[in-house]
Specification:
The chain is mainly beta. It contains no helices and eleven strands. The strands form two sheets. Strands 2, 4, 5, 6, 9, 10 and 11 form a seven-stranded mixed beta sheet that branches. Strands 1-3-8-7 form a four-stranded antiparallel beta sheet, with no helix packed on it. The protein starts with a strand and ends with a strand. The mean pLDDT is 95.
Length: 123
């Protein structure tokens, strides 16, 4: 399985970015997918997850109402729309494919990881 994340960059506080994660080499449409982030000196943190069908999503409290996860199974791609960005959102964002079909929040339930894309929010 290969996951390729893209769409990161430098943005001012209050701005928006859309991350994409293209998957190949696995039955993408049957797996839950997630976005995580890791800031320097901090542990990897769950950000958002989506079930295999896209019918169920969940988010860490700090991004609820600002971020939206979605997927297009025909394109084998999962997205993370990030609005109203804050400096504390600055991190490397990684997409991951779950061992399960549901939108897990647990890092241990993800077995394939992309390389990450840097998001930097300036104040």
């Amino acid at each position: 399985v290969q996951l390729q994340a893209s769409g990161g960059g430098l943005v001012q506080a209050g701005g928006s970015l859309r991350l994409s994660c293209a998957a190949s080499g696995r039955t993408f449409s049957s797996a839950g997918m997630g976005w995580f982030r890791q800031a320097p000196g901090k542990e990897r943190e769950f950000v958002a997850g989506i079930s295999w069908s896209g019918g169920s999503t969940n988010y860490v409290d700090s991004v609820k109402g600002r971020f939206t996860i979605s997927r297009d199974n025909a394109k084998n791609t999962v997205y993370l729309q990030m609005n109203s960005l804050k400096p504390e959102d600055t991190a490397v964002y990684l997409c991951a494919a779950a061992k399960t079909y549901y939108a897990s929040r647990r890092l241990g339930e993800y077995d394939y990881w992309g390389q990450g894309t840097q998001v930097t929010v300036s104040s």
